[in-house]
Description:
Shape: globular
Number of helices: 3
Distance between the termini: 27 Å
Number of strands: 4
Strand order of the largest sheet: 2-3-1-4
Helix content: 25-40%
Largest sheet: 4 strands, antiparallel
Amino acid sequence: xxxxxxxxxxxxxxxxxxxxxxxxxxxxxxxxxxxxxxxxxxxxxxxxxxxxxxxxxxxxxxxxxxxxxxxxxxxxxxxxxxxxxxxxxxxxxxxxxxxxxxxxxxxxxxxxxxxxxxxxxxx
Length: 123
C-alpha cells in the first residue's frame, strides 16, 4: 500500500446478505474462518481486502445487507473483469458452493465505485 494520497485506486464493493436461517454471529464466523480463506485463492491483483460488517441498530429495520466487502486494485482492468464474471454468475464453482452455505445469493449486489474525499482539516 502506498502513502501517496494521489495514487490511483480502483475499488469494487460487494454487498451480501446472510441466509435467513443463519444468525448474524454465525454468518460473520463462517465468512472469516471459511469463506475468506477460500476467496484468498482468487485475490490476484487485489491490494486490499476489507469486510465491513453492518451492525444492527435497535429500533430500525434489519439492514438489507450484512457485509460490504471491499476490494482495492491499482488498475480498472481487474475490477471490470470481476464485474463481468459476477454478471454471468461465472465465479469459481467452489466459491459458489461455499456462498450457498451462508449467503442469500439472490440479494447480493456489486458495484465499482468512484471516491471523492473532502479534507476536513481542523473542523
